Predict the 3D structure of the following.
Amino acid sequence: MKNIRIYLYFIFQVLLIILITINTINAQTYKIDSLLNVINSEKNDSLKIKNLLLVSEYYVNESPAKAIYFANKAKNIALILKNDILYAQCMREIGWYYYNLGDYNNSLINFFNALKVYKPTEYKYTSAVLSNIGDVFLVQKNFDKAMQYYIKALKIDEKIKNKKGIAVLLGNIGIVYEEQKDYDNAMIYLFNSLNINQDLLKEAIKKNNKDEILENKREISIKFGNIGNLYISKLDFKNLSKKERDNLSDKSLFYTLKGLEIDYELNRKSGIATKLGNIGILYLKTKNYNVSENYFKKALLISDSIKAIDLMIEWHKNLSRVYEETNQLDKSLKHYKKHIELRDSIYNIDNIKKITTLELTYEFNKRIAFEKAKRDNIILLTQAEKRKQKIVIYSIISGLLLVVVFAGFIFRSLRITRKQKNIIEKQKQLVDKKNSMLNQQNEEISTQRDEIEAQRDLVTIQKEHIEEIHKEVTDSINYAKRIQEAVLPVSAPARAVLGEHFILFKPKDIVSGDFYWATQITTSGHAPLLIVAVADCTGHGVPGAFMSMLGISFLNEIVRKQEVTQANQVLNELRKEVINALQQKGKTGEQKDGMDISMLVVNTATNECQWAGANNPLYIVSSTQSAVGSRQSAVSIGTEDCGLKTEDCGLIEIKGDKMPIAIYERMDEFTNHEIQLQKSDTIYLMSDGYEDQFGGPHNKKFKSKQLKELLLSNCTQPMSEQKEILEKAINEWIGTGEQIDDITILGLKV
């Protein structure tokens, strides 16, 4: 049962990683395209430099050459501007990219050049570059110089009381001690670094500084990982008792998991991959091979998704060790080959080794072996010939007296020849054996090609399956649209109560979070009342549609069944129903679902009107400008003359109460506005989707002022034409952009 739980957990983690990777890839692709567009249109050179550095940072893992290219473009602009700070920053970035490529000479050149540019008083920048130089010497195993530059940087940060820099440098010094196997000093420095980062995190939380919170959480995660590694390294000590080994293992797992928890919270994939792999190393050292294998596979999957080749090299090597220890030699060889292939790809900057195939390796090895055998044969034959010549010379000089000696030399020569023949025979056998191995490798390549084709077919099947699921989901949402339209007054009979009117209804998605609602009721002894509402629910799409259905249901209950007809009382009752239905308590972190609404009640006999609004306004356009002023004074609360007039018309706006139909910090009763409408007045109820839409030549909001001007300038047109004008205007405003919210405007002619 325990193994089954482990495997189920592993499968769940893999699926989660795949989903996160897909979303991240989509988000990153959109982000890089946006940055490139901004760079091309940006006129401010300083902003262009910063955006070029952001692009280069994006490519640092995927394509280091591209990262260096964009950083160099930024550096050239900074040089032209004579901006020393940005110029030095570009050189630091380029130095870091060369560091990631393993080109440490170029890395040091750029870091030292950046150090020359900074003034002695620019302590923060100088400290950062000194720390970078220390990083290069650390990876080169030059521990004395690494420590020298870290100490220089630490003194500067202590002088300027830069706690962030101090924390980083203490951690780096701890790593130097770890590399030198001085684990006690390493532990002291790492825990001191961790304590500073934890203090900084508390300060950031008090200030509610999100960037500093994220930065310190990331540093704390790194320190937990380093401390976990220290305990893993201590397992290499000989003569440890079982109790000591178990204690070290428990501590290592404890700190590594604490760091991993933070990395998952931050979605820091490099940290997740590193810590999962380190847990795999821990279980490998404790000979728990099944668990070790699972962690290495998860670490490898995440490393591959972010193109972290250095991590992929490490996990392939360790997987090879796991399979070697468990006598799965084929798998061990496969991962070891992948480890070598990736390792070579890092040290070959031009990536020539990446395009060398096994067939070329076969021909190359075969030719080298043949040439070596041929060369060895020539050398041996040449040596034999020289010996023969010596024998002949000695024989001629010695004459008859040395016949016996001459015969002995001949015998010795024949023996050497036989020995040489045996050597050549063995070399030939070795060449044949290598040829056989290369043939076997060719067969493996053919098998791998078949596997790739099978995987391609599987991807095609999965793509078709996803398309089928997408169609099913779309069909379901379309069906939901028909359900939503069934409760909206879409049909001509349902909308007949509105008289001369138009409704502009443009959902962002298939279904809408906006809704409009109308009814006409007659109570005993009173003239018929026309009740109209336009509402904007939290969200759009399917979540918004659910809220809109809830709102329509409550309005039918309150107005039609309970016969509540005073505009503000309808909103008060609607708020109670929404709070009860969503079980809102006003607690911190609770979902703030609800709606904004504009509610109109018109006495069709006298044209007396009641109106109440939650956040949303009411616009009245009158063809008699004198009527605007009189109603402005009669309805003072929340009402303003917009200053918008034509020769024939004027517009007033009645603002809604600043509280939604939901639980809120302000829970007053909604204001009931009473207005006497005039013949030919036009009333407009709406959501905020139209005025908040981005577009136009500068990609800005449409805004309410422009909407009011549009309504006022076309107020004398028939209602159907007003709808066409509004629809055409918003479509042209959006252009090739994207509609960001549901749009609803209801116009009503008195």
